[in-house]
Amino acid sequence: MSVVDKIENKSNKPRFVPVASLEDAQAIRTVTFHPAGNLFAVGSNSKILRICEFPDVSNLSENCIVEDAKVVHRPEMELTCHDGTIRDLVFMQDTINRSSLLVSGGAGDCKIY
């Protein structure tokens, strides 16, 4: 059962409930979710790539309080390695090494983490 299935309005149409909030000084351009569902990455016009922890939604309710997204590793860790806007992100599974890669593309450059 998905998060959307758990919360429905009276007409049985799916309702979308915010579970995390992340703000940036400039426009957020891309978001991608890790295949395991525990992380998501956010890229913006400010050249900052944030890797955040996806919140626990096991006890989600329609009246839940939206919290700021938790940036992982250290509270203020931000990767500022792009020369311009971060436009594309994707997590790729590396089944041989049992790990995953984060590939990011921006205005004029591309990085693999």
Write up this protein.
With 113 residues, this protein is mainly β. It has one domain. Helix content is 4%, strand content 38%. The chain contains one helix and nine strands. It has one helix at 3-6; strands spanning 20-21, 28-33, 39-44, 49-53, 67-68, 70-71, 86-94, 99-106, 110-112. It has a four-stranded antiparallel sheet with strand order 2-3-4-6, with no helix packed on it. Strand 2 and strand 3 form a beta hairpin. The longest helix is centred in the first third of the chain and has 4 residues, at 3-6. It starts with a helix and ends with a strand.
- Percent helix among the residues? under 10%
Distance between the termini: 32 Å
Main structural class: mainly beta
User: Tally of extended strands?
Assistant: 9
Keywords, separated by commas or semicolons:
1 helix, four-stranded antiparallel β-sheet, 113 residues, mainly beta, 9 strands
Structure summarized in a few sentences:
This protein is mainly β and 113 residues long.
Itemize the secondary structure elements and their pairings:
Layout: H1 3-6, E1 20-21, E2 28-33, E3 39-44, E4 49-53, E5 67-68, E6 70-71, E7 86-94, E8 99-106, E9 110-112
Parallel strand pairs: 1-5
Antiparallel strand pairs: 2-3, 3-4, 4-6, 7-8, 8-9
Pfam family, one: WD40
